[in-house]
Amino acid sequence: MGEEIIHALHGVSFTIQRNEYIAIVGPSGSGKSTLMNLIGCLDTPTKGEYWLNGKLVSSMDDDELAQVRNQEIGFVFQTFNLLPRATALHNVELPLIYSGVPSAERLRRAKRALEQVDLAHRMHHRPNELSGGQRQRVAIARALVNNPSIILADEPTGNLDSATSREIMGLLDVLHERGNTIIVVTHEPDIAAHAHRVLTIRDGQIATDMLNPNRRHALGSDASAT
């Protein structure tokens, strides 16, 4: 900001193991969005290192980062980020197109991803023909289709009502039980309660990093995920 240097994050150091389910929480301006961008390879740190699956991501150039994002990170956004004129199936295929996967294999994997989120019966519908929860399921299927190392969800229920939010969090619980590593960035305690571990960011630093003794399992009467 002019001549003033603002450190969005300072002295942040932690390790995430494969198949962990982590929530990153903190107030607005705490640095959690910057941390999310670093984990998702959307940004690089000015100092320090970021290792992902034995690769020093923080030293990569833009092309290498783009490849890592496509192959290692499955993004789920609050606003879904679906192509409005494309079908659910084509939206899920997109990461595979960027990866150069042949057409027949793309189709098979995209259909499989939609089956994993219980949406195969809507694969030929466009986003405006789907409910908010169904659109988020398409976005989750798209995140899964490349078998990423991390599913990175940024306020995944921010645009959904309470019942649909429980449904989506139930689905993330199922995906974690199937072996996926999940990182949820949120300011909502109810959403963070689903994670096994909660990382709290405050003023650009880790305030707390602890296991969640009160983890909420969403696969009860309030959830319809399978």
Automatic annotation (TrEMBL):
Domain ABC transporter: 1-226
Keywords in alphabetical order: ATP-binding, Nucleotide-binding, Transport
InterPro entries, per the entry: AAA+_ATPase, ABC_transporter-like_ATP-bd, ABC_transporter-like_CS, ABC_transpr_LolD-like, MacB-like_ATP-bd, P-loop_NTPase
Gene3D superfamilies: P-loop containing nucleotide triphosphate hydrolases
One Pfam family here: ABC_tran
PROSITE patterns (alphabetical): ABC_TRANSPORTER_1, ABC_TRANSPORTER_2
Gene Ontology molecular function terms on file: ATP binding
PANTHER family xref list: ABC TRANSPORTER ABCH.1 (PTHR24220:SF86), IMPORT ATP-BINDING PROTEIN (PTHR24220)
Protein name per its UniProtKB record: ABC transporter ATP-binding protein
UniProt source species: Chloracidobacterium validum
